[in-house]
Structures
1.
Amino acid sequence: MKKSLKERLAILSDAAKYDASCASSGTTKRHAAGSGGLGSTEGSGICHAYAPDGRCISLLKILLTNFCIYDCAYCINRSSSNVERARFAPEEVIWLTLEFYRRNYIEGLFLSSGIIRSSDHTMEEMVRIARELRTTHNFRGYIHLKSIPEASAALIEEAGLYADRLSINIELPTDSGLGRFAPEKKPEGIRRAMGELRRKIEDAAEPTLRTKKRRHFVPAGQSTQMIVGADGASDATILGTSARLYGSYGLKRVYYSAFSPIPDASARLPLVKPPLMREHRLYQADWLYRFYGFEIGEITAVTADGNLDLDLDPKLAWALAHRERFPVDINRAGKELLLRVPGFGTKTVNAILSSRRFRRVRLEDLGRLGVSLRKVQPFIVAEGWTPNRLLDRADLRALFAPKPEQLALF
Amino acid sequence: MQTIFLKGRGDFEEWRAAARLLLLNDIAPGEIAWRIAGKGDALAGFAEPQQLSLPAEKRVVTVPPAFVDLAETAVCHSDPQRFDLLYRLLWRIRGDRHLMQVVSDPDVMAARRLEKSVRRDSHKMKAFVRFKEVASGDPTGRRRSFLAWFEPDHFIVARLAPFFRRRFFDMDWVIATPKGSAAWDGEQLTINDEPAAKPDIRDDADDLWRIYYANIFNPARLKVKAMTSEMPRKYWKNLPEADLIPDLIANAEAKVRQMAEKAASQPPAFHARLRARHGQAETLEAPPSGSWEALREEARRCTRCPLHCHATQTVFGEGPQDARVMLVGEQPGDQEDLSGRPFVGPAGKLFDGVLSDIGVERAGLYVTNAVKHFKYEPRGKRRIHRKPNEAEIAQCRWWLKQEVDLICPSLIVAMGATAYFSLTGERRRLSEVRGQVLNMTEGRRLLVTVHPSYLLRLPDPVAQQRERELFRDDLTAIIQ
């Protein structure tokens, strides 16, 4: 008997939750007032709800179907799993997207799919949904499509006309890991797809000779996701892969997804609590690489095994290992150095740079800016403040590390 | 003491008019009492006791745009002190034009806090307004009608109404709040600052949304604090999904335990059928062994050295299989790595230019590299080329040898030291062999020249031109 829409919505959203991305930002600014349709994207994304897992819900994130011919060990939808299967008709996905959007539940659609029949057949259905949303229904909201591995170039080209973002998951940080857990997925095929997309995006960004206009093609760029903790890769390996992906394919984001137990899981995988703190530290390190001028090697060299310190954020861990670089005088130091002070974010650094043109900045000023004084004090010199010997204390780390927790007896 | 009565419902113009008059009359912040007009008070601005007027000589009050931006937003805050604070800032800006840039100043900071709070409330309103469908008010029945009830902290309805109009353009809607309401009917955006009453409505679509919310939640990643910091409880009462939260949290642990206890079961029947079909497909595709196509296919899957894990793809040689001349470069670069074809980046463009100078068609040549994968170092959004080491060159020499054996060229051009090393096994300074034509086995000749990217790296345009000519002269050897 055919499952009801509600039943299928339950199955196909449950199956989609392992994709971490829910971003709806960074695309072109547009709205329906010009076109008379529905929807807008105005720069920053909007999180319309938060689930108790702390993740934002910005998009209707569903699979077209969770039938799949691939057998990736880490995936809830792999062909050898006994999860309940279902599929939507393209019209149903369109209807759900529009009705959810009208009620302001979502910013748009994030559509992915298990692979049925062939890559091209699956991709074609997904492209059709995006095309009809844009053309028939005049939908101006956000659309994120997952590229199906090995889908033809023409389909990706068309998908890029309607989607704000395309993504294809690298899944695991090493080729050998992917070989072990996802035998049908070809790492070089995934990289080739990313490279192809980068070239198309760059071509579209060139103004055309005649109209001098840039073509509209995947304006929010491409992203990918890596599973953390399923194979034995260290943080240094993971971050090294991220750096290569950012450098090679101009990715907007690499998402890290702590491997989380799935129903009917393969026995080869660790069925433990997902390493959420590790995932968090990886995001912090990723940020340091992209926005704070750190090299991956600097961040991961702090520990011997190449894994980030779980107790300390990576910038603090780096600072503690490089005390000779501190204290930094916040009234004189350049931006690059200020960005390396633990406890300073980019906003704080800009505020300091702006204020000190007119006043000497004091420790109290930082307090008012919302900076944690306890954290920055040992590392800076401010008007009326020098850390004296605080930096030389052997137990400096203990001042920051979390208090040891008493283990539960049972 | 001046007492100023304002309606105080987020109207910036109302405050601005009053503040301007006060400032032009040099009335200090301490001499003003800002009051919200209650019922019975004459509305807006200056009731009888104030005898203020614009001074006779025209004086313009100019303020930095940053202040106007800040004040427009902060005035929407519900804090009764906001008018006083903003006027004090305005007063101080007269004497200190840079005050707004002193981010650490207590008044600036207090105003920024108000601004931030209003922005946050606005953002949350964009996020948490929930429309419910009601009977259409459109006589033609073409436009559907929706109604939302929301409870903002501040007076932000007028600020946000245009956002909702731009977004929900093709439907009629009303957003009602205790701090005013907004309505759109396709032609007119109507704003009302009177408090509205909470309507009693329900919408069946909410059930679908609740199903989605419950299922997109991952019970193995419970992080309640992260949720409540972004979706504070005060908003929950108007969110259709929020009453699911306590149960989702309470049952999370049991759900995860269930997953862990249930061991992997036997794969479903279609899994075996898929396996069988997959095996067949693989064997069908291979080209005949010994051919150039088979060699290229094999090279695509090359794992002889670790470079393949980092590069996008193998960049194999390209050109007619009966080519008389084979040109060998060092390794693919950024563009070659992306497109999978040799010599298509900046060095390739230069190479093509020199070929056309001497009237040689590239289509008649076989062009390849000593190393088939791109070796690089990521640097932010770019990749920095790195020289391949001897081990990598040695591993890849195997492919180059196969190419030479298959193409059988009478002349090979080694462009750069890496190509020379790969072809001869000799480590020589390029300047020692450059321009020479050496004899190889099987009557083959080897011409040595520079790599075109060497020309691109020369900073001096004169030197670059000179070297380009030398390179061109070297290449003329391929015409004979």
Note: The longest helix of chain A spans residues 187-205.
2.
Amino acid sequence: MALSYKDYLEQSQLPHMWCPGCGDGIILRAYTEALAELNLAPKDVVTVTGIGCWGKADDYLSTQAFHGTHGRALAFATGIKTANPDLTVVTLMGDGDAVTIGGNHFIHAARRNVNLTAIVTNNYNYGMTGGQYSATTPLESKTTTSPNGVAEPGFDVCFLAEAAGANFVARTTVYHAVALKNLIKEGILHPGFSLVEVISPCPTYFGRFNVHPSPVNMMNWLKEKAIPVQKYRELPLEEQHEHFAVGKLVKKDRPDFYTTYRRINGGKKGAEEGDTNGR
Amino acid sequence: MVSEPRKIRIEIDKKSCKRCGICQGLCPQAVYSLAKDGSPEITNPERCTNCRLCDLRCPDFAITLEVLA
């Protein structure tokens, strides 16, 4: 029987805790829809989360789940995937989790090319704790801890993953809901470390101080800011600073951590067995 | 060639809806309008083309679309 996205949701936990117009619900919808289209049984999928608004996502999922400490989702996920290579492992992290407190785990998971998928929700601030600035908050953006504008430039999460060696790197927004679902699917199917960065609106904090508190205006703002990657690369530098590229940024076939480890430590047989399910 | 317009049943779960207005604000066919309290109402169901964008973009899993034969 074909699975529906509802089969991956823990209905008794809904409605969720996120604010009206928060992008987290849209990403959770896309993630569950992607799992349904891939026809993966909920028991064969492990969702690993950290801390933050997006870290609560595992509460609403019927997949296997591991709710870890702040920034360490990828460290736990690396262990889970390496010990159980037949499971599909997906980590859900916010910008605070992935590249601020957990930045080191992020670059090393990409460097090792561990065969898992990271869905990083980037809403440019720490929403759960009151809207403080994070390592992705753009220069001069106002947050509760930078009322005059933040004096540091933000990380480009995709460039970071690319430079560290990730096999699959893509960026999209919650406005592009169909592309979001398809990129998550492709990330899960692609061997090695896959990153899908999703730019997501936080109308409550980032929107209120920098764009607009209305969810609809935040969605239209995402539409204006997002430029397909081929077009983005042709833009003059000053216009690039005003926008971000969306689409598939990197797709390559570097052998994943498990396969390389088995080749070096497990003899010929180990290398041939490899990570058979490709996810 | 004449094609019969498809009938789409749209259901909004009022208990899940948080009245963010995304379905009404971004529907390409203006199927929805907003009531005084900000909750969405289905005012032009016949215009729905089943693009499913409201369903996919609803952050609260409140919209269900069903194509009737």
Note: Chain A touches chain B through 26 residues (CB under 8 Å).
3.
Amino acid sequence: MTVVGVIGAALVVAGVPFFLFGTLGLLRLPDTYSRLHALAKGDNVGLGLVCLGLGLQSGSVLVTLKLLMIWVLMLIASATGAGLIARTALARGVKPHGL
Amino acid sequence: MDWLAHTFDGLLGLALLWLAWQAMHAPGLFRSVVSYMVFGLVMALIWVRLEAPDIALAEAAIGAGATGALLLSALARLKDGSDAGRLHWRHPAELVFWLPFAAVTALVLGLTAWQLPAPGLGVDVARTLGQSGVDNPVTAVLLNFRSFDTLLEIGVLLVGVVAIWSLGPAPSPIVPKMPSPALPALGRALFPVFVLAATYLLWRGSHAPGGAFQAGAVMGAGGILMVLAGARPWLTGEEQGPWRWLLSLGLVAMLAVAVAMAALAGTFFAYPPALAAPLILALEISAALSIALLMFAVYLCGRPPDHWEAED
Amino acid sequence: MFYAILACALFVLGLHGLFASTHMLRKLLSLNVLTSAVFLLLVTVADLTDPVDPVPHAIVLTGLVVTVSTTAVALALLIRLSPGGSDTARGRPEGDQ
């Protein structure tokens, strides 16, 4: 296995805990807003690491660029989605926990 | 690493069954619909595991995306109690019926699948792929070997839209009020990306997973997003209008090709190998355009007005 | 093999949901689960051979589109059948009883 391949694999492995903690946050945190916070942050970083790792492992610039484009689109979509969910919840009168 | 793949399969299967149960019996219809959308995504993963990337793409775009948008917009228009119709065992004796019924059905299905002719048609398709005009076997089956199926399928989609239009005018307002300015901005900014992705899928279809269905579904979803983002829909329902022709373009093009080939070669849909590649490309483009518009028309849930009034 | 069993289980689950749930939207979702089960069985059978049989794949692609159009027609009917809500929100011509 080449050095680049090893770095790629390490990045993929490093991305997994972010998904794990994002999911944990989704399941355990008390209200919509904090769940969104955990999920959006964790998944964005996790997906970035996984995409970068897979790109390095593929050994092709084109595939790496495609994967990074997926990540950027996902970032935009998840930020918009999270904002939409939070604003809808607020408009429906869902109170943040502890307020 | 075999055990890893098996564990993954097992987890996917369990998730699928649980999500299916949730989709049918979760408290609250909203939860049911969201479960069904996730069900579609897990299904897409399973298609990848079963070496069916074409179906995975279509499932993600159609099964989870378009159906999800349809279900959510319908849910917003259903005014009755959201907890209606939950499962309740009217009588414990029902289990006495359901358990044997389930066992027998599963057994019969399994046995039937088991007794299907084992070699299938994979070898035949691989042998004749060279004459089909494309390199992707699924596209070859869809638009050359069994184009009749595709013709009927586009026909079914068109009949669906005709049925929906005949039910009455499209419900208004077509979109809920957006509490966030981010989605409209995103919708406008991303539309070129949708067009790019659809074109890419269409172009890929001739040699790799992708094709008219996936491209059409992505374009249709892009149109739905644009409308959600506050764009005035451009699809109108007036008679003799250009949209009716575009909606039926896919079906008309396929029928025209089929009849022309029947006149030329004597067989319905028999392409001469030299003409196969350009014919398939033309059919794919027209089918993708029609499917995109049909997907969008279906989302409106009724006949669009002859002229959309300017909003605001 | 695993996926064939899964498809059978899913089929039975969908069939049960179709009969046992009382709300139309749930019945519709059950119907969709049912079709997914059938597609899964078809593709599992296609995967048994080498090379993979593309014909069931094409049929399932066709089936997906047909499913979405039946779902859409059913939903459009359902909206117009549901009680409550204003006429225009459910796509009824005004004053039409």
Note: Chain B has two domains: 1-79, 134-312.
